[in-house]
Design a protein that fits this description.
about 100 residues, mainly alpha, about 0% strand
């Protein structure tokens, strides 16, 4: 099987399922499970099933960024759950959002 087809099959069967579960279950992964998934992904690269070594931490960061950028769209169903945006005239540290963070005591 040509390499590019093998990469496509590997991504379709394994990486897509891992990426699908990460937004919900990624926060519950402990160090042992993360290590097992990372070693599986390293073996996939070692045996030539994928073209790059992926890590769970990187995939989780990417899925978090995708989710946050998706819910910033006013048409998104959970956009109303975001906190109010704040307008500031001061120049502060750059942030990825302009939302007012809730105060927790």
């Amino acid at each position: 099987m040509p390499r590019n087809c093998l990469y496509c099959v590997c991504h379709s069967l394994t990486l897509s399922r891992i990426e699908y579960m990460l937004p919900v279950w990624g926060v519950y992964l402990n160090a042992e499970l993360t290590g097992q998934i990372n070693s599986f992904l390293r073996r996939c690269f070692k045996y030539g099933f994928c073209n790059a070594v992926a890590k769970v931490e990187q995939l989780l960061e990417i899925s978090d960024q995708k989710m946050f950028s998706a819910i910033q769209n006013p048409e998104h169903c959970i956009h109303t759950l975001l906190p109010l945006s704040k307008d500031s005239d001061r120049s502060l540290r750059p942030r990825d959002h302009n939302y007012q963070l809730p105060v927790v005591t």
